[in-house]
């Protein structure tokens, strides 16, 4: 039995998680313990893409990729503004990566865009794209179960071209962590000509801030807004991260981080708490 990681915009809802788990266990024919990890995504396929890429890379570098399945479900149904017949969403696809890790779920928006170059085989499972308000409970488990039990050869699937996965262009907020750090989709190589201490302008929404470029996230004094190569993204070209180091020497103030009152704002607070998927504009200060 393979392990399952669920990345979904309903994964912070205890009832939804329980209903999905019950349905999936009802499809499992083999004896043995099933491990399920849930990772909650914001209602944005860009956020789901960011989370998925990071989970894939960590599993491939430090885990056991061929013993894992990742199920994605953040389907915003943005393909039409018109009414939707039978709650139809994006088609269910199965991606087998070069590492043999399996990623499956609706091919919605940019959910698969950041792992596109890691996909060796790409398939569609037809017939479960509509018919339920909660497809993850009512329709998808029968397919996910086959993948977990390593019985994918029994599935009636058709191969797809990778061109069905859109490329993610531009820069975005990829994730906001529990420290208020903003993990972007800007590769570090974009600022490779910058020197430690140089200023860069960053615009998110209607907020523009001048931030210091540093060689690491702790490269400036406490309370200073910086941009530096973070811990996410490809190992040879990490994504840039906006961060403020808030430590025990911070004076009491109005900002609130991890239950502690501090004088310094977090990076997220500096930019009015942006959401994953929000676009980012950046340019150098000469």
Short recap of the structure:
The protein is α+β, with helices and mostly antiparallel strands.
| CA distance, first residue to last residue | 56 Å
Radius of gyration: 21 Å
Helix/strand structural class: alpha+beta
Number of helices: 5
Q: Which ranges are low-confidence, i.e. pLDDT below 50, for 5 or more consecutive residues?
A: 251-262
Number of beta strands? 16
Which strand-content bin applies to the residues?
Answer: 25-35%
CATH superfamily membership of the largest domain: S-adenosyl-l-methionine hydroxide adenosyltransferase, N-terminal
The dominant shape is elongated
Number of domains: 2
Largest sheet: 7 strands, mixed
Report helical residue fraction: 10-25%
Quaternary organisation: single chain
The appropriate CATH architecture of the largest domain is 3-Layer(aba) Sandwich
Which class of the largest domain in CATH terms?
Answer: Alpha Beta
In the CATH scheme, what's the topology name of the largest domain?
Rossmann fold
- Widest sheet: strand order? 2-1-3-5-4-6-7
Reading the helices and strands in chain order gives: EHEHEEEEHHEEEEEEEEEHE
Mean pLDDT: 88
Q: Can you describe this structure?
A:
- There is one protein chain.
- This protein has 286 residues and is an alpha+beta fold.
- It folds into two domains: 3-164, S-adenosyl-l-methionine hydroxide adenosyltransferase, N-terminal (Rossmann fold), CATH 3.40.50; 171-284, Elongation Factor Tu (Ef-tu), domain 3 (Beta Barrel).
- Helix content is 17%, strand content 32%.
- The protein has helices spanning 14-27, 45-62, 135-138, 141-148, 267-270; strands at 3-8, 36-40, 68-73, 92-97, 102-106, 119-125, 158-159, 171-176, 182-187, 199-204, 207-213, 225-234, 237-244, 255-257, 260-262, 279-284.
- The strands form three sheets. Strands 2-1-3-5-4-6-7 form a seven-stranded mixed β-sheet, sandwiched between helices. A seven-stranded mixed beta barrel has the order 8-9-13-12-11-10-16. Strands 14-15 form a two-stranded antiparallel ribbon.
- Helix 1 (14-27) packs across helix 4 (141-148).
- The longest helix is centred in the first third of the chain and has 18 residues, at 45-62.
- It is elongated, with a radius of gyration of 21 Å.
- The model is unreliable at 251-262 (pLDDT under 50).
């Amino acid at each position: 039995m393979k392990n399952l990681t669920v990345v979904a915009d309903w994964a912070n809802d205890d009832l939804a998680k329980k209903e999905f788990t019950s349905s999936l266990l009802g499809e499992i024919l083999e004896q043995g313990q099933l491990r399920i990890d849930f990772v909650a995504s914001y209602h944005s396929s860009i956020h789901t893409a960011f989370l998925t890429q990071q989970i894939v890379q960590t599993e491939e570098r430090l885990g056991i990729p061929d013993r894992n399945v990742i199920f994605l479900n953040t389907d915003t149904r943005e393909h039409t503004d018109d009414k939707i017949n039978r709650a139809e969403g994006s088609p269910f696809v199965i991606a087998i990566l070069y590492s043999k890790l399996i990623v499956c779920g609706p091919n919605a928006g940019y959910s698969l865009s950041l792992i596109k170059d890691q996909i060796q085989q790409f398939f569609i499972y037809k017939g479960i794209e509509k018919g339920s308000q909660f497809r993850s409970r009512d329709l998808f488990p029968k397919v996910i179960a086959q993948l977990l039990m390593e019985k994918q050869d029994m599935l009636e699937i058709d191969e797809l071209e990778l061109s069905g996965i859109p490329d993610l262009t531009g820069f975005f907020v990829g994730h906001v962590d529990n420290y208020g750090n903003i993990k972007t989709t800007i590769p570090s190589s974009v600022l490779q000509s910058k020197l430690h201490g140089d200023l860069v302008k960053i615009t998110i929404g209607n907020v523009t801030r001048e931030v210091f470029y540093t060689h690491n996230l702790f490269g400036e004094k406490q309370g200073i807004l910086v941009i530096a190569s973070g811990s996410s993204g490809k190992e040879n070209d990490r994504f840039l991260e906006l961060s403020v180091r808030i430590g025990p020497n911070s004076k009491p103030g109005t900002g609130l981080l991890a239950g502690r009152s501090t004088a310094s704002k977090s990076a997220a607070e500096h930019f009015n708490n942006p959401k994953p998927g929000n676009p980012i504009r950046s340019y150098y200060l000469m």
